[in-house]
Amino acid sequence: MLEDTSLTAQEVADILKITKNTVYELIKRGDLNGYKVGKKIRIDVKDVEDYKNKTKNRRGTKTDVQEKNISTATNSYAFSINDTKVYSSSEFVICGQDVLLDILSRYLELNSQGIHVLRSYAGSFNALLGLYHGKVQIATSHLWDGDSNEYNIPYVRRMLPGIPSLIIHLACRTQGFYVQKGNPKGIKGWEDLKRPDINIVNREKGSGSRVLLDEHLRLIGVPGYTIKGYHRECVSHLAVASTVARGEADIGLGNEKSSQQVQGVDFIPLQKERYELVMKKEDMHKKPFKAIIDIIRSEEFKMELSGIGGYDLTETGKLIAEL
């Protein structure tokens, strides 16, 4: 029975003696494997045990210390468009999932006195929705439109109606398939999703990777529900790659950088994507927003990203569109 082997986020929180939000954060970071059943997050018992053993083996690392580090180092904010919390003028929410935003947040706090940066790890679609509703100050997006072959601009136009906006380029990343080591099923590209012997693991609704998959499925005429594993969701690239590495799926979609962090997977490059920052034009002359633009365009910031690897920084800091 599923109930005998899987746990809710609250049950995991009780076992590890941490908060439920920290459980979600661990899943988003790929430290703890999780998946969705309907609208609920579930975690397998064996994955909790693996996580506990992994942290025990880290010298000087304990779960309660890790919880403290997550909450203070990233200032994580669990985003919801239904959230009624009112943030003070000194609290600044940056929405998106890439690690480069954690680096950007650190630079902003160091360079802007009095600004307390909060991080939301919502996907691209919900990030733009949060910007529209005034729940976040900065959104990031890597949403591909299959009809125009454009990134982000078509979505910003539709999702921020009547709101003059700026799109500033952060980086390009390579999206592709994670497959098991050696690619035993000979997977080459999108057309392989038509095969009846293929089992996939998906990203959550609203993420840029999920939109990319759904757009390509639409273009090749394959309804998602016909693909085995389509409704199984993970909330990070690392969790998707790990699922494939364990042999629980044949294909997962994600960026190249995450494939390099997981043993047991190969990466099939499919598409170069544009990862970009979106802000309201009315904010561009305000202190924290000007600071963000200056940071993104600085050589120091670009050098740090270059050292991490996995990013094409050719256009970093370029104003892509005023809408």
Automatic annotation (TrEMBL):
Under the heading PANTHER family, the entry gives: BLL2305 PROTEIN (PTHR38431:SF1)
Species name: Clostridium tanneri
Q: Which Pfam families match?
A: HTH_17 (PF12728), PBP_like (PF12727)
> What residues does the Helix-turn-helix domain cover?
7-54
InterPro entries in the record? DNA-bd_dom_put_sf, HTH_17, PBP_domain, SinI_DNA-bd
- Where does the PBP domain lie? 109-297
Transmembrane portions of the chain: none
Please report the name of this protein according to its UniProt entry.
Answer: Helix-turn-helix transcriptional regulator
